[in-house]
Every structure is written in C-alpha cells, then in structure tokens.
Write a structure and sequence with these properties.
Blueprint: H1 2-5, H2 7-19, H3 23-41, H4 56-91, H5 97-101, H6 104-128, H7 134-162, H8 168-188, E1 195-196, E2 205-208, E3 213-218, H9 220-230, E4 233-236, E5 243-244, E6 249-254, H10 265-270, E7 272-275, H11 284-298, H12 306-323, E8 340-342, H13 347-361, H14 366-382, H15 385-405, H16 409-430
Protein name: DUF2254 domain-containing protein
Keywords: Membrane, Transmembrane, Transmembrane helix
Transmembrane segments: 21-42, 62-88, 109-127, 139-159
Length: 431
C-alpha cells in the first residue's frame, strides 16, 4: 500500500493528471456551478438595500448570448487544438504529442470556454425559474461580468498561443524545456538520493519484472523501507527509461554476502512503475532521443530541412552545457536512502542518444556535418574529462560517416578541417 500513496507516486500522479485534457475543464465546470449558487447567498443578507436593482430579463439576455457563443468558441478551440496536435505529431515526432497536449495555455482556454458555457446554462436556468431575488440577481450580474472579462482575456491570449502551438519551432522548445528539467533533477540527484552503485558485481537475488513496458518511475523511498524492514540492501538495475520484460532484473536484493534475503520481493516489484511509453519527467535520455528524432525527420529525403537539424544540434549543446554546469547542486552529507544503490547515468550513453542518429542521417549534408563537429568542439572546450572523451569519440565517428557519405573532395576537406579543430580542442583541454 505504501507504494501507492508514497510522495513520489503522488507527485508522478499529479504530473499525469496535468497531461489529461479533461481534468482542468472538469474542475472549472464544477467551480462554475458553485459560483451560480454562491450568488444565492446574497439573498440571505441585508445587501439588497445597498445594491441597485437589476432586471432579470437583461440578465437572461446576456446569459443566452454567453451560452450560445461559448459553445461555438469551445468547439472551435477543440478543432484548433486537434489540428495543432496532428501538426506536432507529423512535423516533429509522435513522441512529442504528450508535451504538446499538456500545454497550459490551451488547457486553460478550453477550460474557461467550457466553464463559461456551463455557468451561463446553469445561471440561465436558475433565473428563468425565479431562483434569485434582487441581491442574488445583482451578485449574479457581477459574476457574469467577471466571467466575460476572463473569457475575453483568455481568448486573446489563446489566439496568440494557438498560432504557434504544434509548429516545429515551438515543439522543439517544449521538448528542450522538458529535457532540461529532467537533466537538472538528475544532475542534482545523480543517484536519486540513494547510494552510488559500488561495483558491477551481480551480488544478491534478482527481482524480475512481471510485465512488459518501460520503467517510468522508481520509488526509492519504498525500496529504502523494504531494505530497512528486511535488514538488507537493494541495488537498482533498471533506471527510468529501461525496457522491462519478464526475465529481466529490475533490482537485486540481499542482506548478506551469500545473497540470502528477507526483503519482500513483491513490494520491490511494485516500487517500479512500468508503462507502455517512456516519459520525460524522470527519463532525461528520452528527451535527447526525441530531439534526435526531430532532427532525423528533418534530414529525411521527404523533408530535406537541414536547418531544423542544425537548430536541434544547438539545442543539444545547451542541454549538455546545463548538464555539465559547475554550479550544480551536490547531495549534502549522507545519502537519504543509504540502503539503496543506484547507478548514475553514463555520459557516453547521453551522447549516443543525442548525436549518433544525427551523425548518421546528416553525414551526407555538409552543413550539418560541419555544425555537428563545431558543436562537439564546443562541448570539448567547456566539459570535464568525461565530456571531452565523449565529444572526441563522437567527432571521430561522425567524421568517418561523413567521409563515406560525401562525394565531393572539397566538402570532405571542409569537414576534416573542422573535425581536426575539435579533436585538437579535446587534446588541449586534456593536457
């Protein structure tokens, strides 16, 4: 039960709810209904003698106009949002759909339009049935004016947003932000507040997945509780983003060197949330993969848009500079979960996710090949030894692909010259 109500699971659930398009409209609809009945409370006070008289007919007319117009605008909003979602999936990558649909401005706009429609229908029904007295009618008029103002401001803001929603540039920005947030969280807690994995030895009993899918969340707090209860240790072997299947170990548990354990393995399995898709929140590598996919699609013969690939390369450089930021927070003192060992992300794996596909698909495009070598040179200049090694390796690999793909000797010479500068930068920083 603790695996269900733990703080980590609740936080993950809140993020999932934000991605659901129906959540905010439902909340706003309920608030709209409540607001109508709040106006009735004014009739039970002495405010009527201080309030001007408002004709019920005028309120009915305004509510009728609002009810009819809000339904049309809500329908228009849904159609525009669906078109934007389809555009994001077709021009960028289907993996970006989850981020585009979670756009706060669009969700707020749709919620406001539907909420205003529900408010006007409920209020109109109440007014026609003489539910309000003079104070209630005036209060309802004030609420109606406030709803009108909110609708107008929301519509103006949403029109500006919908003009860009689903466009390739905005999709790249949204993916970059989600990836940056995930990278910062993992940079500040490289072992998820557990203990760094001490060795590659496979000590302990393996706990296997029971379903097929991707690990979306690892509840380290629950694993710590299991380890403390069983007086043992748990080594996580499947980080978020790992593809899990029966027969593949999620973790290894032990309470003695010989591998015996009293830890509840079923509880350990429940600590790993496995779903059909990878997510951005706790899987920084997924964001890099999605950006690489966007560049790969742009470099396909059907699209032939090297400018987008160059834009993505610049985005990747910003993300790796963020990952290497010397101002990153370090885990202070003893780890919070000292009985759970968690492997850190390998920088080489991050580079593979980001640059391998771009180097392969852009090998035959000289401007992309040159920009990729310059990007790797920049990372070699600002990074630590691990980043310099990864940049040098991928620079050599990209050059080898380019030499095979380009036919014009002058183009090959241009890329070689830039690659030589990148390799020399890596060597200079190492020296």
């Amino acid at each position: 039960m603790s695996a269900i109500i733990s703080r980590g699971r609740l936080k993950l659930l809140s993020h999932r709810l934000r991605e659901r398009l129906w959540v905010k409209p439902l909340v706003i609809c309920l608030l709209s209904i409540v607001n109508v009945f709040v106006a009735k409370l004014a009739d039970d006070t002495d405010l009527a003698q201080f309030m001007p008289a408002i004709s019920a007919d005028s309120i009915e007319s305004l509510l009728s106009i609002m009810a009819s117009s809000m339904l049309v605008i809500a329908t228009f909003a849904v159609g525009s949002m669906v078109s934007a979602y389809a555009s994001a999936s077709s021009t960028a990558t289907p993996r970006s759909f989850r981020l585009v649909i979670a756009d706060d401005v669009s969700q707020n706009a749709l919620s406001t339009f539907i909420g205003a429609f529900i408010f006007s229908v409920v209020a109109l029904t109440a007014v026609k049935n003489d539910y309000f007295e003079s104070a209630g009618l005036f209060t309802l008029f004030i609420l109606m004016a406030a709803v009108f103002s909110i609708v107008i401001l929301t519509f103006l803001r949403w029109v500006d947003r919908i003009a860009r929603l689903g466009r390739l540039g905005m999709t790249i920005d949204v993916v970059e932000k989600a990836t940056a947030d995930a990278l910062k969280r993992r940079r500040d807690a490289p072992t998820l507040q557990g203990v760094a994995k001490r060795s590659q030895d496979t000590v302990g009993n393996a706990v296997f997945a029971t379903t097929v899918g991707y690990v979306q969340h690892v509840d380290i707090a629950v694993l710590q509780a299991c380890a403390e209860k069983g007086q043992g240790r748990i080594v996580v072997t499947a980080l978020p983003g790992t593809f899990a299947a029966p027969g593949q170990a999620l973790a290894r548990v032990s309470d003695s060197p010989d591998g015996n354990t009293a830890i509840d393995c079923e509880q350990v399995i429940q600590s790993f949330l496995i779903g059909d898709d990878r997510t951005f929140q706790e899987d920084p590598r997924f964001g890099l993969v999605v950006l690489s996919e966007i560049a790969g699609r742009a470099l396909s013969p059907a699209v032939n848009d090297p400018g987008t690939a160059i834009d993505v390369i610049g985005t990747l450089v910003r993300l790796f500079v963020l990952w290497n930021d010397s101002g990153a927070q370090e885990e202070d003192g003893a780890p919070k979960y000292d009985r759970v060992e968690v492997p850190e992300l390998a920088l080489m794996d991050l580079f593979d996710d980001a640059f391998t596909a771009i180097a392969r698909d852009g090998a035959g495009t000289v401007e992309v090949a040159v920009r990729l070598q310059k990007a790797l040179r920049s990372l070699a200049l600002v990074g630590d030894s691990a980043m310099r090694g990864a940049a040098a390796y991928h620079g050599r690999l990209a050059l080898a692909r380019t030499e095979r793909a380009l036919n014009l000797p002058e183009d090959v010479a241009t890329v070689r010259a830039v690659a030589a500068l990148a390799q020399s930068a890596a060597l200079e920083q190492t020296g």
